[in-house]
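Marked as duplicate of an earlier ticket. Keeping the data here for the record.
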Amino acid sequence: MKKSNVTYHPGFKSVKEHEIPAPESDGIRTIREELGGGASEAGNEAASAPTHGDLWEPLMGRKTRRKGPATRAIIGNDDRIEVPNISEIPFSGICYLEIVPPDGGVTFVGTGWLISPTVVITAGHCVYCSPWKNGDEPETYGRGRAAAITACFGQRGNTSREKINAIAVEYPAEWQSNQQHREYDFAAIQLERPASSSFVPFVFGDGDDDFLKDMGVCIAGYPANTKKKSFNKTMYMHSGRIMGVEPQRLEYQIDTSAGDSGAALVYYDKEENTNVVVGIHNAGDSGAQLNIAARINSFVYSKLAEWQALGS
């Protein structure tokens, strides 16, 4: 498996440009617009930090119980548990996203995770929608890039250890042109300043089919309140195994709901004592009793590496 580097360097690496069509609303600028095409004079350095799987490893491979029909993206019973210590690695690199759509009037929520001190990865629909809607409700809240995004680290209830505003976003041009293509439903958020060193970025990797099949993985995120349960801006997690491996997506029976969009699909590499992201959660199919992530294949890997370099 090819994995990203966990050591970050000042300045910017040379990256291949790709065209982003003009947005349908002003919203947040793209990272390239924010950078103005130039290099950073004051890059941010973060020493590589040890990572471990002490909290996640006991849950790896736990079979998901299936009782009764699925409700949205809950498979059988809701088996998620509250994360006991969100300041521990790898949970410290996960953030709660407060998202204001172009027309305002409501705040959407999502989940993100650091790949560098100033870049958060999430789902594409957490930064760009056309139109912005709340599930099946008829109301819409504009089209285009979000008007504002805040990344909240160490969030538990109404308290967070650190809140950082977004100054720019980036997403594949394919996502903007056709939002039925979930394989392009991922994005980067550039923060206005680096997250504290206690919030440790993730490693990401592009494993082959045989490596990923039946792999034990976990998702930790910030599910929104539902009619059945109040999560109160608190991080919850669940684990299971990858059941379907497609060229552009991964399928699993791990419980998620609205608000978990953008969460990292993570496995624990025992040999290297490292938590590695292999997918970006972005959809659920309650009829098939499956949840879905954009697979970190060579295309997604290259995009993440490019965005990581822009924000390092």
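See parent ticket for discussion. Residues 5-26, 34-72 have pLDDT under 50 and may be disordered.
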